[in-house]
Each structure stands twice: as C-alpha cells, then as structure tokens.
Amino acid sequence: xxxxxxxxxxxxxxxxxxxxxxxxxxxxxxxxxxxxxxxxxxxxxxxxxxxxxxxxxxxxxxxxxxxxxxxxxxxxxxxxxxxxxxxxxxxxxxxxxxxxxxxxxxxxxxxxxxxxxxxxxxxxxxxxxxxxxxxxxxxxxxxxxxxxxxxxxxxxxxxxxxxxxxxxxxxxxxxxxxxxxxxxxxxxxxxxxxxxxxxxxxxxxxxxxxxxxxxxxxxxxxxxxxxxxxxxxxxxxxxxxxxxxxxxxxxxxxxxxxxxxxxxxxxxxxxxxxxxxxxxxxxxxxxxxxxxxxxxxxxxxxxxxxxxxxxxxxxxxxxxxxxxxxxxxxxxxxxxxxxxxxxxxxxxxxxxxxxxxxxxxxxxxxxxxxxxxxxxxxxxxxxxxxxx
Amino acid sequence: xxxxxxxxxxxxxxxxxxxxxxxxxxxxxxxxxxxxxxxxxxxxxxxxxxxxxxxxxxxxxxxxxxxxxxxxxxxxxxxxxxxxxxxxxxxxxxxxxxxxxxxxxxxxxxxxxxxxxxxxxxxxxxxxxxxxxxxxxxxxxxxxxxxxxxxxxxxxxxxxxxxxxxxxxxxxxxxxxxxxxxxxxxxxxxxxxxxxxxxxxxxxxxxxxxxxxxxxxxxxxxxxxxxxxxxxxxxxxxxxxxxxxxxxxxxxxxxxxxxxxxxxxxxxxxxxxxxxxxxxxxxxxxxxxxxxxxxxxxxxxxxxxxxxxxxxxxxxxxxxxxxxxxxxxxxxxxxxxxxxxxxxxxxxxxxxxxxxxxxxxxxxxxxxxxxxxxxxxxxxxxxxxxxx
Lengths: 388, 388
Prior knowledge:
Two copies of one chain form a homodimer.
Chain A (H helix, E strand, L loop, with lengths): L8 E5 L3 H10 L5 E6 L12 E4 L5 H9 L3 E4 L6 H9 L3 E2 L3 H8 L1 H10 L7 E4 L5 H5 L6 E6 L9 E5 H5 L10 E5 L5 E9 L5 E3 L3 E6 L4 E7 L5 H18 L3 E9 L5 E7 L9 H4 L4 H9 L13 E7 L8 E4 L2 H5 L3 E5 L10 E8 L3 H14 L1 E4 L3
Parallel strand pairs in A: 1-2, 1-4, 2-3, 4-5
Antiparallel strand pairs in A: 6-9, 7-8, 7-9, 10-11, 10-12, 10-14, 12-13, 13-16, 14-15, 16-19, 17-20, 18-19
C-alpha cells in the first residue's frame, strides 16, 4: 500500500488515556501513531509504532517525535509550546495550532481572550500575588470566588473555590504566582460542548452534556446526554462554544466547558484543545466519536456527524481511597451483565486515590435508567490492593 | 495491575482481518494478544504483543504460541488440529475445542454431522473421486449440483456448482480427491446466523443477515440486516443455527450459513468456528460485536446482547480487476461524507483481483437507503496501481 490519507504518521505528545483512545479509533483505518510520554508505562505505549520515552517539555524529544511523524497533535496542554511554534515555522503540520495552545495554556490569556472577543464569561481580575486578592474582589460580586493559578493547573489542581470571608480574614495561603480571580457561579449547571473544526473550517458542535462533579476531587464524577436543559438553552450553549472555537481560529477537537446560572445566564469557563473526559461517551453514544473526529481532522477528511444515538451516561472510575500502587480489578460481572454498558480501562499499572483509572458508558432508554445501571456497576467494580 | 480476567494473554492462530478486528475489540480492556501467521505483513501483526512468523500447520510454531499464551483461539480453519488436540490433553485452554474444529475442517465430516443430528441440510453423497460423481447424482435430484472437496476448501475455493449435463457428459475435470456432492438449492435466499456460546453454555444467536453473493467470485458481495424474511422464518433459522452449535457442544463464536428455498424449506450449509465475514457489520450494527463476544467468551465473561441497533449493510471491498501488487487507495471523500458509514481497511500491503481488502458498513433508516449509500461509496473508492 502506498500513499493515501491513512498513510500519514501521527505523532502524539502525551500517551495517556486520550492518546490511547485516539489510537484505538484509528486502527480500523490502519493509521500509525508515534507517542511521546515521560511514563514508561503510558497507556498508549503498547499500540504506538514508535514510543519515545521523555518529558513533554523537552525540546529534544519533541523534535525527535516530529522527525518521525507527518503530523503532530497533543493530548495534554502542559507541553513545550515554543518548540511547536518553531516547528510550525519550519512547515510542520501541528493540530491544533501552537498559537491556540499558547492562549489556552495560560488561564489569564484564556480569560482575556474571552473578554476581548465578546464571549460571555464570568467577571475576573488578574492578580500578581495572593496579597492582591482582597482588593481584587472589592470590584467583583458574590460570597465565593474561584482562584486559579494562571499557569500549570491541571485536572482540578491549581483551582480553589474560596469563601469571601476567608480571603478578607487573610487566611488564604497559596504560593506566590500570578492568579485569575473569578466570580463563582452559585448552583451552576455545568455543561460541556465538544466542538470539532476541520482544516477547511468546517465546524460541528456535539450535543451538550451535563456534568456532575465530585466536590472533593474537583473532577467529573459522571456526565450525561442529553443535558437536562431547554432546547433554546442547548442552542445558546452550542452557539457560544462554536463562536469561541471560531474566534480562536482553532483546528482540531475542543472541549468547551460552560456554566449556566440560576437565571439562565451562560458563561464560558475553559477550553481544552483536545479530546476530553467530557467527550468519552461519544465513542458509544454518538455517530462519530471525538477521537474519530480528531483523526478525520488530522488526516484532512470531512467531519463526521455528531448526533446523539440516545441517552447515555459516562462515569469516571477513579482510584479508590485506601488503595495505592499494585492492584487487582474485581467485580466485573455486573458490568458484563448490563446491556449496552461499555468499559474503558486505561492500563495504568498502579493506582492512587482519585487517579483516573478508567471510565464506563451506559446507554439506556433514559438517562435515569442509564445512571442507575452505571452506579450499580461502579459499586461492584473494586480495585483491591494486590498481595502476593 | 495484577491478575484480572483482562490480564490473560490470548494467542490467535492466524493474523488476518478477523484477528485484527478481534484485537481491536479487546483494546479498551487492554487485553494482550499474540499472533501466529505465515505472512510477515499480516494485518493483525502491528498490534500483536508477540508476532510469531510461521506456518499455521506447523506444530513447532503452534507450540511456541501456546507457550506464551494463556488461551488459544484461531481465525482460520486450515491449521494443525492434531497439535491442538495434544495441547488440550495437556490442559491448554483452546476455544473453540479442537474436536469441533476437526469436524468442521472436513466438509464430509460436517455434512455427516448435520445428517446424524437431525439438522436440516441438503441431500448429499460422498465420492472418492470425480469418476463416482455421475453415479452419485443418480440418487439425488435437481439440474445442478454442488461439488466440494472434503478437505482444504476456503473462501469460495474448492467449491463448484456444476450442471447435471456437464457431469453426465464427462466434462468435469477436477483433481483426484474426496468430494461431497450436494443437491443445489435453486434461487436460494442465503442467510447467516452468528451464534455465540460461552464456557458456561450460555447461548445467543444474532439476528439473521441476508447475503448477496458475487456469482463470479463465490464471495459475499454484500449483506444486510434485518433479513427480508418473515419473523417465523427468522425464528426457525435461528433455532436451526442454535441447535447446530449446541449439538457440536461448541464454545466460541460460530457463523452458520443457511439456505431457504422457494418453498420456505431451510437447510444448514456450513459452519465456521470463528468470527466471520457475515458478522463484520455487528461492530457498528449490533449491541455487541462478534469480536467483543468472542473476547467475552475467551475471558469467561457473560455474553453481551446481540440485538440489532437498526438497518445495516455490510459491503466487501475486494481487489479490483487489473490491479495487482502495490496500490494506492483513492476516492475516500464519498465515504467520509456519508453519515453512519464506517470503513475497515485490512492493511494488506498488496492487492490482487478478488482479494478481501476491506469492508464498509452503512447504517440508515432502511436497508434500501443504506445499500444505495454503500454502492455509491464503493464506486468512488478505487485501488489504483501505484507508480513512483
């Protein structure tokens, strides 16, 4: 076989579960992937054509990946963007564009981008140290605030929700760095919209999903689609998400997280320039998964349809309290007895509390029934400490 | 991670497209596969943990595969069954059982098995050479007969449909060996039923699919589900297929091919003890694919539901006339523009006319519409000779 669109090698910076599922989606077309990851046991390693073992912020390793790949993409934001910008200048195809990543990597840049492009977002102030937070909130409203480190936050880390009283009492104790201080949306409905935009500018938004967070871990506990919102609100949210990706001039798959407050006002929270936890359920729940969609975009093929096939729930399977390191997975029977239940297990060799170890999706005639099934399956699945 | 059901290594004898799709279906669970195949470019090779390059009838190579695998299965019948029987005696888990394979490998044994177990099949005679065919058909009826070599037939090879006149004229010229001579079912509707049976004896039949053959190649051109038959007939066919697998005491996935004649009488034609071309569309068209089902069976997990999600067409993509060896694949646009169309391309490095190079499935609101889409896509897809 000689050159055809599938014959291009894709280099993925990052070899976690997102990379793994991207590869899985490309196997029916025989697309080959190279993977860079610092973890020798990275989930995507087994099916990589070439695995490069090295840091995601290492110029040398990213250049090495670029050399053996026709197209570069990334499944994590915390990578060496300057090297990507240099590679782009040399003509390398990088999707999404590193200039988009540069904005998204920094939460200050992200917020300023929304504000300057009339993309509805919560009011915010930028502060250069914790000492400035008290004066910043004088011009904001509410009894709670969200404080985010401008750089380096990830997976619920680097984000704090703090009561006004605690700020005014001077009880806050965070390391010295730049922060975004935002108004907190009380009792928000949290929505995600996956937006796909092709190299030709074709754009498709997936149906809204509604997310329920684990309050302790600040991670998605589960999500469901269709979201429990009016179709007018669904349209507004998809429109806002679509406008954001268009303004970014982004090519790729983008996860747009949004808030709806009690009055129905909508706010863009964050964008991830990659497939996302909030789109896992598209594998079984939608005509085209977010992973296939990214493969189509990378290979410059037309976008697939994004419609929902029916009610679906996605539930994260996080490392349980009290189990660290080696583990064994038990209680699979319930999962395999449940119709239209699917497991994705990420092949991480060790567990720790709160670590994303896998997820499950359940389809049913209603979100409620799917959720009941998913809860029952998750209760049965146990990661047990492994003892010889 | 330590022992759990997914942690067993599966050894597959044969590394063609069936092995490839079996592996793809196990990746979300991180199942590891070893593959034995004589072709250094076997489709399943890329994602095999260990690839053993060797003949499928070589004792030494099958023992090598067994040594590094917890469970053995096969994706082709023409393998060394005696070695499997020895391995079974030593306690190796082999699914399906090699005694089942021994019956199926030989078309005489298969026919005699159906006849002796009251499984409706066409009338037949066994002959030891071509010279005996004329006398054999004296006791059969019809104007055409099917002649099959008892051993070694595969993928439409080793099967001839011959008019009575040609046999009586002595025009038939086939190599000296044992043959099955069967009555030919005129204007038959050809149906396949995939039957899955677990290690615990749990059994599930997939909905009937109706097959249209390419008359020249004697290969499936396309198939569709639901079949265009009454529900009473659907039930009878599923019942016959199920009884056949139960009588075989088979564990695994079995493709049962059946005929329906113009009067509505049904006949079992052949059984393949593995996932089959006639079950490819279960990947997109059914709750559980034939490949996931076999993985569940191999890992001793409960069977999944087999229900059809909606009308589906599967169309084979065969090597085109006039193109041999190196090729390039063009005309993908139509495929990617069509909603609910999926391509599986088998990663064969060279083509030849009639070779199974890939398949596509299309889902739509009706079989008719799906078939229109599939035809349009196939017309657009072209394998062109590759010239530098």
